[in-house]
Amino acid sequence: MNLKQVDNVNVYEDIRLDTIDGVIDFKNFWAKEFQYGQELFFYFHRLEDLTDQKELDEIEKDLLQIFNEDNIYIIIYLDKSWFTYLFKYEYKFGTENLLLKFWRYFYGMDIIIPNINVSFKEVCEYFYLHRENDIYLRSFKANGYAKTVYIKGLGGDYLIKNK
């Protein structure tokens, strides 16, 4: 992963998940970004269509075990491949593997480190009302909802970090 600065945000380019070294770099990156026990919010939209269907099916089985009514909020559900979800999760041992699965499964993904006083319900309300007009989550962050926001780039070969 190569880092460059663009418009006061970090952009990590050349994310390569088709090699062992690329996967190791990806997992190590996330292990350095988060702390155990830290609450994270995820914004997912659309099923990835570049990944092999067999791999998607296997990932889906794993993901269905962690999603439940207490930690997921469905904003839009058109069908199995077109949707918008919010998900909350506590970072723990092995989360790097889960992030790799998310990266491969979801076409669009944002990871949010919320500010201490921000609830999952508040984030859900914000996304429901404003997400389409706040593509890079700059207003979301400026309004005090998040410490840091990570945005998966189209195609998954880059990552934007707004801290």
Q: Strand sequence of the main sheet, in spatial order?
A: 1-2-8-7-6-3-5-4
Q: What are the segments in which pLDDT stays under 50 over at least 5 consecutive residues?
A: none
What form results from the Cα inertia axes? globular
Helix fraction by DSSP (H/I, runs of at least 4): 25-40%
Report on the biggest sheet.
8 strands, antiparallel
Q: Oligomer, anyone? A: single chain
Given helix and strand content, the structural type is alpha+beta
Percent of residues in β-strands = 25-35%
Number of separate domains = 1
Number of helices: 5
**What is the string of helix and strand elements?**
EEHEHEEHEHHEE
Number of strands: 8
Fold and architecture overview:
By secondary structure, this protein is of the alpha+beta class. The chain has one domain (2-110, 145-162). Helix content is 34%, strand content 35%. The protein is built from five helices and eight strands. It has an eight-stranded antiparallel sheet, with helices on both faces. Helix 1 (20-33) packs across helix 3 (95-105) and helix 2 crosses helix 3 (95-105). The chain is globular. It starts with a strand and ends with a strand. The model has no long low-confidence stretch (mean pLDDT 86).
Short structural description:
With about 160 residues, this protein is of the alpha+beta class.
What topology emerges from the helices and strands here?
Blueprint: E1 2-6, E2 9-13, H1 20-33, E3 39-47, H2 53-66, E4 72-79, E5 82-90, H3 95-105, E6 106-114, H4 120-130, H5 138-142, E7 146-152, E8 158-162
Helix pairs in contact: 1-3, 2-3
